[in-house]
Each structure stands twice: as C-alpha cells, then as structure tokens.
Amino acid sequence: MHFTLADLVTDITQNGAESGAALVELEVSQTGNSGGGGEFRFTVRDNGKGMSADEIKRAVDPFVSDGIKHPHRKVGLGLPFLIQTAEQSGGGWDIKSEKGKGTTVSAWFDAGNVDMPPVGDIPGMFRSILMFQGPREIHITRSRGTGGPSYELRKTEISEVLGGLEETGSLVLLDKYLRSLEEDA
Ligand SMILES: Nc1ncnc2c1ncn2[C@@H]1O[C@H](COP(=O)(O)OP(=O)(O)OP(=O)(O)O)[C@@H](O)[C@H]1O
Ligand SMILES: [Mg+2]
Hints:
- The chain is α+β, with helices and mostly antiparallel strands and 185 residues long.
- The chain has helices at residues 5-17, 53-60, 78-88, 122-130, 155-162, 168-184; strands at 23-30, 39-46, 92-98, 102-110, 137-144, 151-154.
- The radius of gyration is 17 Å and the shape is globular.
- It starts with a helix and ends with a helix.
C-alpha cells in the first residue's frame, strides 16, 4: 500500500469542500517525535449540506456507492477507506452531521502501531487543500507536540498576499512558505 495519511486527510477535506460549505476548518495534530510513539489526529468541519442519519450510514458503508460520480466504481472510497485504515491501525474515527447544518469528521491514528500508514507530505497536502474551489474560507490549524497550535493558515489571507493562488509563481512561493512553517513547527 502506498497511500499516506495526508492522502486520507486530503480526501476527507475535499468532501467538505464539495459540500456547499462557505467555511471548511481543518485541524491536523501530531504528538510524539520521529523516534516514534504519539498520535496523529485530524478533524474536518464544514458548514455545508450535511447528512441525515441514513445518509451517514450509506456514506460509511464500503459496499454502497451512489454510482453517480464514479459510475464504474463498485465500492466507495472516501469515508469507508478512512474508517478501515483507522480501525486496522489501532486508531478510531467519529462522524457527526446534521442535515442543512454541516459535518464534522475526525480520525486518529496510533503512531506506535506498525500498521499506521506513513504521514506523507504535510505542506504539500496543505497546498492542495488551500487550492480547493468552493468554500469562501478554508482555515487550517496545525499542531506539533502537546502545546497549542504551531501555525494557522487562512485561504483568504494567503490568496490576498500572493495576489491569487492560480499563478505558477504564487504556487512556488506558497510551497516555500508552507515548507518553512512546517520545518519550524
Ligand atoms: N462533508 C460532507 N458533507 C456532506 N456530504 C458528505 C460529506 N462527506 C461525504 N458526504 C456524502 O457521502 C458520499 C460519499 O463520500 P465519499 O468521499 O466516500 O465519496 P465521494 O465524495 O462521492 O467520491 P470520491 O471521494 O471518491 O470522489 C458523498 O458523495 C456525499 O454524498
Ligand atoms: Mg469524497
């Protein structure tokens, strides 16, 4: 398996961005150090269309797919895959959603478990997420260790400073900026 936790976070955050939300909030925290141990945890909160209890049940079921977005795919990926990965590596998950109000998805992973996927490229992940179309604001909070947040990112602020996120030059700058923040975190 070559996927990373960053891939999972990106996927779940994309669901939030596609939910019609004006605001998507992402928290990514990591305790422990490179020597091992600790926990990787993330929460995605959106104020989009939300899901009924029945819709949540369908969304977390690996054998149900709406067949619209991916007509050739026989199983869903997103949420079922997150749940399976968390449960197989000694972690857990939680989904709360209210129709018309929004959705909150959290998952945590035990960094001491040999089956935990690699974390992957966190700055690269933030860069992709900040470029999601749809939400007016994307607010990211990153924490390393046990203290408070190490750094925060807001799509509106970054886009204003860089004069838009579309140009190649802006993306290179953004990438450098995100990597320097993560190095100092
Ligand atoms: N944050 C959310 N808000 C509202 N509905 C959601 C949210 N997350 C998931 N869903 C619902 O659950 C369904 C399944 O989500 P999932 O991520 O598994 O697949 P998908 O987004 O349809 O396709 P893919 O992620 O493979 O592109 C979505 O189509 C959507 O109806
Ligand atoms: Mg999805």
